[in-house]
Amino acid sequence: MSTIVVVGTQWGDEGKGKIVDYLASQADVVARYQGGSNAGHTVVADGNTYKLHLLPSGILYSGCTCIIGNDVVLDPVVLLQELSALEATGKSWDGLRISNRAHVVMPYHKVFDGLQERLKGTGKVGTTGRGIGPCYADAADRIGIRVVSWMDKEAFAEELKNALAYKNRILEAFGEKPFDFDTIYNEYCGYADKLRPYVCDTGALVSELIAQDKKILFEGAQAAMLDLSHGTYPFVTSSHPTAGAVCVGLGIGPKHIQKVVGVVKAYGTRVGEGPFPTELLDETGNRIREIAHEYGATTGRPRRCGWLDLSVVRYAVQLNGLDCIALTRLDILDTFPEIKVCVGYRYNGEVMKEFPASLKVLGAVEPIYETLPGWMQSTTECKTYDELPENCKKYVERIGEVAGAPVGIVSVGPERDKTITRMKMF
Ligand code: GDP
Ligand code: IMO
Ligand code: MG
Question: Of the residues 81, 163, 259, 268, which has the maximum number of CB atoms within 10 A of its CB?
Fold first, then answer.
């Protein structure tokens, strides 16, 4: 058995898609264990740019089994669009497998997502509007519809009727249009017919693949600071992006997790609301956004930008038990004469030992910065770690030191060949 979990360590968009696609060249299986179409994972390969929302980032390799696990919330509309886009580039997806226990994102989940955001007013989360929170809430409320029921026309009719009887009353109370049973039923039965060949018990499948000693990647979406339990609640997503969720999200035991790789972007970004201590609301922040083209892969929203926050990364090391870091987008900093990095927080004059649970505190901390000299030369053509400029290596080493996990992969461009590996992965 050989398994690696790849997780985001900040607020998402660290480059998980790129790292998973890169590692997938050596893997037999890539499995998503949480999240849904709120994810936007970019993979640049064969001269094309693929934006993956639900498909695991191993889908571009023809021999790779790609699993959508039980704790992923599945939006069939998005999945079918993604498959069509893939088909247009001549790719196939024979290796796709969808969990029969995953919950289905229904059209009313997206309406509730928007409605709840409106009702929260200034307290809104800034969600992606993909119906993620309402779908997970229905799962917990035991009124969700799972793939296994959706695939069975009778069970689907009964569960959809029950769900609509409940949901439509709430929608009407808020002045929203109720949903028509026949319209959703017919539309979703059509989607079910298209996806039925790929549905199976993915928990049993993953266990079998582990027993066959396959090389498996577990692909996280979102990131530690968006984790429902450990992130900047309530400005989080509704699932658990941290490594512990792999077991529940795929139906395997904890002994099957061998290595955990945390993806760290060389600076910080955040989409949506909530505190972001190292945010730069000045020219430097704008400069990062423009050089890096930091606009959301799912919603197109401009991402908030700032310096790298190692308090956040250190916390992600603790939450995930990271074995190593994959440091991405280092090339974005090539033209900055000085680079700041936050190594801790000060609050009420005291250096904080733990990552604050209170948003009031997190919103008021003073980041403790170290200023490192930039390297002022391009790194994108560097093929080995030694070829990187001295100041660049110093930045990398400082990150590993303060975060408490070694930097095992360095990425200097979006393409596969712009990746420097310093540690054996599989
Ligand atoms: P994910 O959600 O974590 O998969 O990340 P996104 O795909 O949302 O955002 C990461 C962006 O950075 C994408 O546009 C990637 O193509 C790009 N990217 C990844 N690694 C690198 C890198 O090392 N350098 C540069 N310049 N871009 C990168
Ligand atoms: P990837 O996998 C960045 C953010 C949203 C919002 C909060 C809740 O590409 O890294 P949701 O729609 O999940 O209820 O929104 O979480 N968010 C992300 N931010 N990258 C993502 O995914 C995100 N998925 C959700 O912006 O603040
Ligand atoms: Mg993304």
Answer: 268
